[in-house]
Amino acid sequence: MAKDTRERILETALQMFSQNGYAGTNIRELTASLGLVKSSMYKHFESKEAIWNALLDQMIAYYGERFGSPERLPPVPDSLEGLVQMTLEMVNFTVHDEKIVMTRKVLAIEQFRDERARGLATKHFLTGLTEMFTPVFAGMMDKGLLRRDDPAMLALAYTTPISALIHLCDREPERTGEAIALVEAFSRHFAKVYGEGAVEKD
Description:
CATH topology of the largest domain: Tetracycline Repressor, domain 2
CATH class of the largest domain: Mainly Alpha
Strand content: under 5%
Low-confidence stretches: none
Shape: elongated
Structural class: mainly alpha
Radius of gyration: 20 Å
Number of helices: 9
């Protein structure tokens, strides 16, 4: 099915915002790149700000459905190896999905200009990951897979370096393979350190 005009506008706006930022994206250039005139665009969006807010709404939905969120938690792994593999699947998705990569770039650029972008950047780059992994680690502790500890602190310690390596992939795409290898090594190290001494639940 051919993409409708609204979808095409949002798709092109994401590309242009991720390359040029909000201020550097011109409505005239946006419509011209789609083969539209301004009047056609205004049938769908009343302004560039309206495009921006619709795009943020779309980003939130897309990310939550495909990557997960505190409201859409990943399953609690049944083994330490399961934690490693779940982490690698999530990281591989987030560094290779073009729309997710562009979304991170937009948030990184616009977090200093736009209050809503700032909040989303904090959520996607820090707090959301911690909130996702806190119940995962609590569940793994209940299964006897991890040593008892503060699951929120454990989630913060686990997700922060992984998030930093994801941003490395965005800045230097040629180092993506290296970054993913480091994620795997770190995940295995974490599983070994916090899995040692764990007692299976009766």
